[in-house]
Amino acid sequence: MSDDSIDLRFLGEQVQRLQGDVRQLKGDVNYLKSDVSQMRAEFSGLETRFDRLEIRFDRLENRFDGLETKFDSFETYVDGKFQQVHQTIATNTQVILSAIGGIRSDMKKT
To answer: What is the C-alpha to C-alpha distance for residues 57 and 51, in angstroms, rounded to an integer?
Structure first.
């Protein structure tokens, strides 16, 4: 073993390279941590915006449901009025036809 001399300079250079690589990795990890933190913050902001949009959508949906109910009520009201007008026209037509029939029978008697 004494014949095999180990060159410590070679090992020292390797250790220095490893230390440089470790420093580079630590820097990269810190950069990635920063990026991840920033992405989490942006994602949190997007979640907040999405929650706000969801609340707005729910409000609009409720308003639409209210309008739909009012429209259905108005439609029922208009249908009732049309039926009422139809019935009035039918009744008036019967009255007019009866009056004409009465006039005809009076004319036949004379």
So the answer is: 10
Identity of residue 104: R
Helices (H) and strands (E) in the chain, counts: 1, 0
- Nearest Cα neighbor of 42 from 53, 50, 54 is 50
**In terms of pTM, does the model score above 0.85?**
no
Backbone angles phi, psi at 99, to 5 degrees: -65, -40
Torsion (CA) 71, 72, 77, 79 in degrees, nearest 10: 110
Average pLDDT taken over every residue of the chain = 91
Provide Rg for the chain, Cα atoms.
47
